[in-house]
Amino acid sequence: MKIFVHDYPGHAFPMQLSREFAKLGHTVVHAFAAALEAPRGAVEARPDDPAGLTILPIITGAGMDKYALLRRVMDERAYGAALANAVCDAAPDLFITCTTPNDVLDVLRAKLPRSLRTVWWLQDIYSVGLKSILNRKLPFFGSLVGWIYRGKEKRFAARADHIVSITPDFLPFLRRLGVPQEKITVIENWAPVNEITPLPHDNDWKRQQGLSGKTVILYSGTLGLKHNPALLSRTALHYQGLGRDDVVMVVATQGLGAEFLRKEVEARGIRNLKVLPWQPYERLAEVLSSADILTAIIEPDAGLFSVPSKILSCLCAGRPVVAAIPADNLAARTLQKSRAGLIVEPGDEAGFIARLDRLLDDSALRAEMGRCGRAYAEQHFDITRIAGRFLELPRWS
Predict the structure, then answer these.
(1) pLDDT level of residue 397 (50, 70, 90 thresholds)
(2) DSSP-based three-state secondary structure for 198
(3) DSSP conformation class of 178
(4) Integer CA distances (angstroms), 185 to 3, 234, 367, in order
(5) Which of 53, 220, 250, 377 has the fewest CB atoms in 10 Å of its CB?
């Protein structure tokens, strides 16, 4: 079977899925947006890649500025046309599209042949996210844009042969779009457990960053409009105010969140906040393992349309997590189920710091939570089993 997998940002776990499909004997094309600024997985060819795998960066020449709304619409529609051409050229039997903006979906719906079996792998609900973000400044405009983009989701949902939702929390939304239950399968996200493994705290990466001997609280991943970067800068300032020179907040990110934090460092004289760009995927295990505590944050309303999957990489690394996320979000439930971390509601700065203090004061608890997280990942992130679930989806086989 020939399978075309598209993951717009180029994340690690869809790339792992494509490699597994090819390993199982399928011919696979894996595509992603070459110009998009995002933390990437292992999207370069490897010497041991299966012969049937082709990795295809989609190049449009556009800069993919996701914060300039009108330019973003044009860029994404141009990208959608380029992607549709690539899919048609490949002539696959099955097409899976993941983490795909609505304007790209809209173009795909119009340009792909109706006979092509298509699966929409739903990672985020863009219409709800856009409405939430835009309504903070322009309430009527945000609601209008949300309504328009919901229409694009509804049309693509009708076009798709099947929908894979990463959480049962998205099912009421899909039902409101008119999607029948038999057309939906829930497959939760995972992280590559064999690629992100626990390593020593004092590893080469940590030494290269001048962090040896430091207690590291680390945030790694996207930090944008649906997050609260101020929580990280205030946390660093808190420990600096206590004279805890041994504690360093390390943030590996790019974009608006990184710009905000760098300004905070300069304006507030924060000495124990280190802001780095996204690190190469091949060093991610070292980055995460350098931490004593890993963190995740999301805004309260973002819990309605997004699941912070970076937590799954934290579990693989075997480090405890302190997460400021809504308690009913799937990521929070996963942390509770795995017993790998502590949760606080978004915006609860005192609670966030209190939970960090609890772990900083209890090395045994940190170690136990790390072991629990790794055990959960090993039990639930088996890529062969996960690939089998995709291949057994109704309307695929």
Answers:
(1) very low
(2) coil
(3) T
(4) 19, 41, 35
(5) 53
Beta strands of the chain (E only): which ranges? Answer: 2-7, 27-33, 53-58, 94-98, 117-122, 162-165, 184-186, 215-220, 247-252, 273-276, 293-297, 321-324, 341-344
Q: What does the pLDDT average to over 5-32?
A: 97
- Report how many domains make up the chain: 2
Q: In this structure, are residues 354 and 361 in contact, taking their beta carbons and an 8 Å threshold?
A: no
Q: Domain residues for 34?
A: 2-190+382-391
Location of structure tokens 């136990």:
368
Q: Return contacts of 353-362, CB within 8 angstroms, 24+ apart.
A: 353/235, 353/238, 355/322, 356/217, 356/235, 356/293, 356/322, 359/292, 359/293, 359/320, 359/322, 360/215, 360/247, 360/292, 360/293
Distance, first Cα to last Cα, the chain: 10
Q: State residue 134 phi and psi, 5-degree precision.
A: -70, -30
Q: What are phi and psi of 197, to 5 degrees?
A: -120, 155
- Say if residue 154 is in the same domain as residue 228: no
pTM of this structure: 0.92
Residues 146 and 79 occupy one common structural domain: yes
Question: Angle formed by the axes of helices 363-380 and 349-360, to 10°?
Answer: 100
Put residue 178 in one of left, alpha, beta given phi > 0 → left and psi -120 to 50 → alpha: left
State whether 277 and 150 are in the same domain.
no
Same domain? 175 vs 281: no
- Please tell me whether residue 308 adopts helix, strand or coil conformation: coil
Name the residue with tokens 């903070």: 136
